[in-house]
Prior knowledge:
The protein has 6 helices and 8 strands.
Amino acid sequence: GGNPPASQAGHSSKRGVCVQRVPADGILRRFLQFRHFTLFGLVMSLFDVHAHLTHPNLIADVDAIVARAQAAGLTTIISNGLNPADNEAVRSLAQRHPIVKPAFGLYPVDAVLQAMLAAGETYPGQRDAWPTAEAIDWVRQHVEEAFAVGEIGLDGYWVKEGFWPAQDEAFRELVRIAIAADKPIIIHTRK
């Protein structure tokens, strides 16, 4: 989950194995030949439930990416927001493309990024830092427009242990917001 640092975009490394990611449209072209699938007599649609269409590496070509996904058979793409600015971008994208459903969230690193930077920590996916309370309030104020609350969660890989309690509290508050609004949540967890 989340936006990987630019140096890692396109690669996935789990347990020492590095796998080259195939671009989403390449996967779709190879594996999806039908718009709907039948399982147990039910017609099923294809959903992408965790996308970051507002990632800096995608945003310039996002309209074409969405068009290719739709042509390949996807009926819904849930695009996750990471902070207030990204949530706004996700909302705008969803307004332009009915296939895109917005998820508004606060990425676990973003939840404590301001405190991390103030303590002299760095983050390879460097971006603007938001006050945690302000970012959570943004989600609270816009949750009714969201399909889901996400991406939210806990990250012990990029976030040092001293920041875990604040990250945990932000996560709990976002879960409370989702529950109160009866929205599903999209969880990021690492380490």
